[in-house]
Amino acid sequence: MTDASLHALDRAEIGPADEAGLGDYWQLLKPRLMSLSVFTALVGLIVAPGDLHPFLGATSILWIALGAGASGALNMWFDADIDRVMRRTRNRPIPAGRVAPSDALALGLFLSALSVVMLGLTANWVAAGWLAFTIFFYAVIYSMWLKRTTSWNTVIGGLAGAFPPMIGWAAATGGTPLEAWLLVGLIFMWTPPHFWALALFVKMDYHEARIPMLTVTHGRDATRRQAFLYALGLAAVSLATAVSSLGGPLTLAVALVLNGVFLYHAFAVWRRDDAASEADRHAAERAMFKWSLVYLFAHFSVFVAEAALGSYGGW
C-alpha cells in the first residue's frame, strides 16, 4: 500500500464526527495563526503609502483573515492523521471526532474561494493573487509536501506565514515594492528560530508523528546551532528594515534592543548542549520561544509608530 493510501486510510479511520459546535469550526481556522496573519497584514496595509478607504481597508483585512483561516482548515484536514498522534494536537476537532474530515475540507475550500474573490473585488487582484498563492503554498506545498518529507519544512514553509504583510501592502497600493519584501523577509528569517525553539522542548511529539523536523533528522545540537545562525540572519534583515523607508531612528533603536535580547536567548540555547540538565535546557528554550513572540509583535508595532509619527520615507 502506498504512503498516499495509508494517509487516506488514517484520515478515514478517524471516523464519523460527533455533533460539532461553533467553537470547533472556529478552532479549525487556527485562530492563533490567523491573528498573527491579521496583525502583520494590517501593519503592511497601514505603513504602505496608499490611500485605501478605511472601510475598504477593514474589509480587505477581513478577507485576508478568512484566507488565513481557510489555510488552517485545509491543514487540519490533511494533518488529522498526525494530529491524533501528537499530545498537543490530539484534541483538535478532527482527531477528537467532533468534526468530520470532509466538513473541514469543504469549509477550507469554500473560505479559500470566498476570501480570494472578495479581496479582488474589494481591493485589487494583485493582492487577491498573492492571497491565493499563500493559501496554496500553506495547504499544498507546506502541509502536503514539505512538512512530511524534509527538515527544510520550517525554513521554506515559513514563507506561507511571511506573505500577509505583503498582501496588506498590495491591498493598499496594488504593488509589492522592496519595502513589502523586507517585511516578508523579516518574518521568513524569524520563523525558523521561533519554531525550532518550540521543537526543542516538544521533540518527542514530532518524533512519534514521524515529522522530519530538524530536531528529529539532525539532532538537538544541530538545531540549536541553526537557530542561533538564523537569529543572526534575522538581525541583519531587521537592521535593513530600520534603515529603509520603513524605518527611522525609533525603529533602529527598537531593533537594536530586540535583536540584542533575541541573540542573547539564542546563544543561551546554543551553549546548552545535551550534557546540561533537561530543566536547564528547557528553561532556555522556552525563554527564547516566548521572546520570539515579543520580538515580532514589537518590531511590527514600531513600523506603525514610525508611520504615525510621519516618518515614512525613513531617514
TrEMBL record:
Its EC number is 2.5.1.141. The chain crosses the membrane at residues 33-49, 55-78, 99-121, 127-145, 152-172, 178-202, 227-246, 252-270, 291-312. Pathway: Porphyrin-containing compound metabolism; heme O biosynthesis; heme O from protoheme: step 1/1. It is an enzyme of class 2 (transferase). Keywords: Cell membrane, Heme biosynthesis, Membrane, Transferase, Transmembrane, Transmembrane helix. The keyword Nucleotide-binding does not apply. InterPro entries: Protohaem_IX_farnesylTrfase, UbiA_prenyltransferase, UbiA_prenylTrfase_CS, UbiA_sf. GO terms for cellular component: plasma membrane. GO terms for biological process: heme O biosynthetic process. It is found in: Cell membrane. It is a multi-pass membrane protein. Carbon 2 of the heme B porphyrin ring is defined according to the Fischer nomenclature. This is Protoheme IX farnesyltransferase. It comes from Jannaschia seosinensis. The lineage of its organism: Bacteria, Pseudomonadati, Pseudomonadota, Alphaproteobacteria, Rhodobacterales.
